[in-house]
Design goal:
two-stranded antiparallel sheet, 66 residues, alpha+beta
Length: 66
């Protein structure tokens, strides 16, 4: 398994989330980590990003027409 060049802190910063939120996602997905500087395996990073993106509202649905 390859490693992504992303740490938990990187993901939190990129998506404007508290590090604790990313920790919670790791816990829920069964992803092991030591601290916010832990570099994630590629598949683990993809799983976390998928969860983050699936929880964000779709901007097209929230736009008002006219």
């Amino acid at each position: 398994m390859g490693f992504a060049d992303l740490s938990i802190a990187d993901i939190a910063a990129e998506y404007n989330l508290p590090v604790e939120t990313v920790f919670q996602l790791c816990d829920r997905l069964g992803i092991a980590y030591k601290n916010q500087d832990t570099n994630l395996a590629l598949e683990d990073a993809k799983a976390i990003l998928h969860q983050i993106l699936s929880q964000k509202p779709d901007s097209k649905q929230t736009e008002k027409v006219g």
